[in-house]
Amino acid sequence: MHGANTARKAVAELIGGARAGRGGALLVRAEPGLGAGALLDHAAASFERAGPDGTVLRARGVAAETAVPYSGLHALLRPVAGRAAPDDPRTAALARALALGAAPADEGPVLAGLPALLHDLAAEGPLLLCVDDAHHLDAPSRRALGFAARRLGPPLPVAMLVAAHRDGAEDPLLAGLPVLALEPLGAAAAGAFLDELLPADADPAVREALLHSGGGNPGLLTDLAASLTPAQLTGAEPLPHPLPATGPRLRSAAAELAELPERTRTLLLLTAAAYELGGTADCSTLARAAALAGLGPDEADPARSRGVLRCEGDRLRFANSLLRHAAYWGEPPERRRTAHRLLARALEGPRALEGPRAGDGPRPGDGRSGEDVNAGAPHGLLALRHRAAAALPQEGADPELADALAAVASDTTATDEHTHAELADALWRSAELTGADGGFGGAQGTGVRAARLTAAAEHAWSAGRPYRALALLDQARTLPVHDTVRGRTELVRGVLELRNGVVTDAHELLSYAARLLGPYDPHTARRALLHATEAAWAIGDIAGFRADLARIAELRTPAEDPLLDDYCAGLDAVLCGDIDRGGPMLLRVLEHAAGERQPWRLLRAGIVALVVGDVAAAHDLNTRALAGARACGPAAVVPQALEHLAYSELRAGRHSRARAHAEDGLRRARRSGQRNCAAHHHAVLAMAAAVEGDAAACAGHARAAGEDAGPHGLGVAATLAQWALARCDMGHGRPHEAAARLEPLVGTGPGELPGTASGRGHFALQALAAPCLVEAAAQAGDRRTARDALAHFARWTAVTADPMAPVHLARCRALLAGPEETPELFAKALEAHARIDSDFEYGRTQLLHGKALRRGRRPGAARGVLRDALLAFERCGARSWADQARAELRATGEAAGQGAPRVLGRLTPQQLRIARCVAEGATNREVALRLSVSPRTVDHHLRNVFAALGIRSRVELTRVLAAAGDGRHDG
């Protein structure tokens, strides 16, 4: 029951209602394999666990008994058939029907008898009826069940669950019932299902292949997994590609198709072959292919009448994925190859329809070039892929077809995952058809094959299939090739490792690729080194980052990204402390980026903007990079652009926007197989949850980030996740815990570079997290650590243009200053707030200012400041911080003001009743007697009330309720 939360909830409500005397029914509609039977099993088990007084009746429709009147009712009611006594006038007709004799001429008495029998059975206790595969029941049984189900309701304690295939139109005999439609599993639920299904040592590539072939259908996933040998499951033997399947569900689907005429099955095979290569079965193409096979336009009628096939617009679709797989894989290999040849000819245009030719139509190898084969064809790449699917298993190498596939694939621009998947398949088939020597012989031939496998891997990666990409790269790496080909293969391998594996390994692979490519292809070598700098930055390796920048500068090529030299030299200068030299270079990079359109270059410029502290420019550049990646691809860049944009939103103090971008990025990163990018998004979400005061969500996202950030060497994500936990501690009033988390990250040593310290956190975040450490250490009473962290932050503030830095610096100095200087420093921080837009940071400044005023015995002045803090926190949804502001307001003698009703709204009705009684002066025992509960229950609820309101005494509770205008007595 993975991913079926909505379905389980609906079933639980139905069962709970029946046991409470509110009977009802649900019609569960689902494709085969989606778990309707499992849902009925779950319902029966839940019903029986709820109490021993219930009865469960179950039946399953059987196709062989569809023509037997009342066979379905007989199977369902057989355990209680004796209750439908022939001498009872209400159930006499039903009893005769259950005897499976001749069907009565008048069904009316049977229809009336079933509700009467259910009423009698319900008198002994709650009743649940579960009917699976109802589409196979005989019509009289379906009519009777529908009649009875529509009449279930209070006060009858009877629930009915009826499951039927969602293959076609709604069954009129079951019309009017509430419908619960089961959908295919999402990626996360399908993955969890597979994790239980596969052995612990299963190869991740197997899991990925199953996920993509299974389409979220649990039954199909089970059959697909069962079709693989133990050696294939563990990766000891390669997976077949595409992935075939056998199993009981597919055998059942194949048996259903076997009842159709042979000519209809041929049309079904053509339709399934069209879908097998990721295309769509449009009617015009299928009509041409069917004509080539000698099929008429009415061959689809038997399949449509049986609900196997349906027409949607100009396309034919199978009723479910199991039937589609059975229609294809249930046929012999030669018939599958013939279907692909016919589809290729149908797609190649009118010339292909002139008549049969040797080899079943024109193809590369019959004296025509690949370009000629594809001339005038509206679906060139798809036609060639069908040609390859027909030729590959039988004929081995076909250089001309291989060249044609590679040429068309290289001319096709991919902007979505589907197109990338098609191009990956085309280039893989091209590599296979190239043969061992590529048609050239020697290293040149194997180089062609390796290059095509590498290109296929790039597209597989962009399609969200990293393990398929790795398998293709592993094939390419076994071939003896020139350094230029090997270098490109290692470059792609390094990028995959950078996005989905250990970043230190990625850095080594990318550096190796650059060494191989440098003498022959400086442009691609620089590309490898730019990715290497990304890896070094992610690790936090400043020395490695600067070494990569130096190597990039050495590989100068004319007319290539003229400001790349400024980018490299400027970053190198800044990282070694020479701001005066590096700053102007980086500003030139930002100026040039105003007219840039390439997403990757915009993301690089966004990094530069954050380094120099121009947060507004970083936001603009990353927004443009995201728009460019969405508009023209590549699709794999979108989650990375969302990652950069979310980080820039965090720097600007706009946490709700950062959360929205990170949620989108996390979904896309998971779908595209970018685990490292997903870790960054989890870290951003942890920080957003910390601001909002959701401790559970913060801990969950921080844990998810750490699962990959630590093992994969993602220093930025690991540091941000720990910082988020520390900020969450601060939001809940735990400064000692926050300081303990932050001090190892930030450190308090002098550091070697501006903005760095001796801590273990990532160098790019140490200075940014320092103000949090100052605040936590100051509140924890560790003024030495606070002063050292402040000195570290002050050095960074002197060299950055970050508009938030002056706010944090003034605020931190105010925390450590004497009473005379504190007001002036807070005033300076508030002046700096005018240049930034962050309710959260403004609220924190006002909260700390208000605390200082209250400690200085100026409660009147503190109230106004704390009210401003409260409003700012409420505007940005920072709940735990708002609670702190309310607590400070109460400490000044003013209850939480207009925020108090909102706090009371967070109490449960029982907690609010207990709070009102206590506020009136009642003891716990008196409250227990008044509300008919135990004193222990009162004590438990009262502790939760104090925690929710941020108070410690009954006196404060009375003040809070009075401030909220809640003085009612609810005894």
TrEMBL record:
InterPro entries in alphabetical order: AAA_16, Sig_transdc_resp-reg_C-effctor, Tscrpt_reg_LuxR_C, WH-like_DNA-bd_sf
GO terms assigned for molecular function: adenylate cyclase activity; ATP binding; DNA binding
Keyword line: ATP-binding, DNA-binding, Nucleotide-binding
Taxonomy of the source species: Bacteria, Bacillati, Actinomycetota, Actinomycetes, Kitasatosporales
Limits of the HTH luxR-type domain: 900-965
Gene Ontology CC terms, in alphabetical order: cytoplasm
SUPFAM superfamilies the UniProt entry points to: C-terminal effector domain of the bipartite response regulators
Name assigned to this protein: DNA-binding response regulator, NarL/FixJ family, contains REC and HTH domains
Coiled coil regions in record: none
UniProt KW Ligase keyword: no
A UniProt-annotated Pfam family: GerE
